[in-house]
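Following up on my earlier message about guanosine-5'-monophosphate. Here are the inputs again, as you asked, copied directly from the submission form:
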Amino acid sequence: MSDCLFCKIVAGEIPSDKVYEDDKVLAFNDIDPQAPVHFLVIPKEHIKSSAQITADNSHIVAHIFEVIAKIAADKGISENGFRVVTNCGKDGGQTVGHLHFHVLAGRNIGWPPG
Ligand code: 5GP
Ligand code: ZN
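Thanks, got it. Here's what our run produced:
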């Protein structure tokens, strides 16, 4: 989508601090980190949110979780653990309308969310 911030990051029109990339997904550090480790994993394909996951595109979510596990191992955060969050829509606190998974680590992430 031409007016989507994360599609522009995928296209390289807006720079990002890349953590991982393959043909289907991109991971990059969040511009406003909420924990010592805070990166986002997104599908390269534009999907608005987790409310738009269907049988036709759910394979990308499985792939994203494979990628998260791989990055977590590479970053050495698997043992202490991490939080994976996807905000959906207004009440879910989503501010960028392109599906993304936050991965937060490096401190004890509180629960429940605010
Ligand atoms: P949401 O609020 O939609 O769950 O998460 C959007 C996230 O994208 C926020 O954590 C925000 O800091 C991050 N973000 C917004 N604009 C940019 C940007 O231009 N570059 C990067 N790396 N992160 C961004
Ligand atoms: Zn997009």
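One observation from looking it over: Helices lie at 5-11, 58-75, 89-92. Hope that helps, and feel free to reply on this thread.
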